[in-house]
Amino acid sequence: MNRYPEGPLIICGRDSVNLAQRVADCLKIQLGHAEIRKFSDDETFVRINDNVRGRDIFIVQSTHKPANENLMELLLLLDAARRASADRITAVIPYFGYARQDRKAQGRVALSAKLVANLVTTAGANRVLTIDLHSSQIQGFFDIPLDHLYAGSILLEHARTLDLSKAVVVSPDVGNVKLGRDYATRLGLHLVIIDKRRPEPNRSEVMAIIGAEEVVGRNVLIFDDLIDTAGTICNAAQALRERGARDVYALATHGVLSGPALDRLQEAPIKQIAITNTILQDRERLPEKIKILDVAPLLATAIDRIHKDSSVSALFQNAKP
């Protein structure tokens, strides 16, 4: 018997309103309402306008740019729900910001991903639901249950609409080989690997293409978990075209698209870029070649399973490439 007869209540931050509404529509429930505004000194005010006492609450907010502002909204929403006596609070973070700061690659740097995990827990979350963490080890940074969903099935479904008669899958870097191999296996295609180096943050250089002979005259599908400044994707596309590739397609879960990303993608020899709606996009600014795929049904199914205390692990198997 469901211990929450009123059903789940979904509340969201300001930058995830569209996605949260889509999730609520999939679940055929009303989206909850929270008042979020700023004082003149730039401090954030949050008030949940629904009765949450004893209820099962899902707070949806991606922590993308402006990362600190969106993160603060998430923390305040969690705190407000906790102080209003919600019975269970799930932080639904479609895109988990700070995920790339998950290790001490040099001395005297902050382990920001762990700190954010601590903040989410302290603010009041009882569990976390997220999609395609940049580093899987972040799951261990949380001392509360974390359900890690994969958008692989969504990207694969779109990939199968493309011309795969003569195609290969490309891993944009050596660290992404396992993911690339999974996609290639699912699609029945060969895998090509790009060896790159990163001389500084947000800048990459292609050093070599392992299996370059496989791309000649073929369509190329580049899979990645995110596109930030787009340097990696664009450099890879250029190198692949120079080695005889036909059409280049890029598919990624998170469209961070910061800095020069939109200009780079517009000019790059990429026929189409597919990203999901884990991050809010201004469609008027996007190049026509960018296509947005919907993760709302995936999130809605996971939320429904969590709410009913049923297994979420089945979704991992279905959605992981």
What brief labels describe this structure?
321 residues, 7-stranded mixed β-sheet, 5-stranded parallel β-sheet
SSE blueprint and pairings:
Elements: E1 9-12, H1 17-27, E2 34-38, E3 44-48, E4 56-60, H2 67-83, E5 88-93, H3 112-123, E6 127-131, E7 146-149, H4 152-159, E8 167-171, H5 177-187, E9 190-200, E10 203-210, E11 219-227, H6 231-242, E12 248-255, H7 261-267, E13 272-276, E14 290-293, H8 296-307, H9 313-319
Parallel strand pairs: 1-4, 4-5, 5-6, 6-7, 8-9, 8-11, 11-12, 12-13, 13-14
Antiparallel strand pairs: 2-3, 9-10
Helix pairs in contact: 1-8
Q: Give the strand order of the largest sheet, numbering strands 1, 2, ... along the chain.
A: 10-9-8-11-12-13-14
User: Termini separation (Å)?
Assistant: 33 Å
Structural class computed from helices and strand pairing: alpha/beta
Radius of gyration: 20 Å
Query: What is the number of beta strands?
Result: 14
Shape: globular
Helix content: 25-40%
Q: Which runs of at least 5 residues are low in confidence (pLDDT < 50)?
A: none
How does the major sheet shape up? 7 strands, mixed
Average pLDDT level: 93
Number of continuous helical runs: 9
What is the H/E order? EHEEEHEHEEHEHEEEHEHEEHH
Strand percentage lies at 25-35%
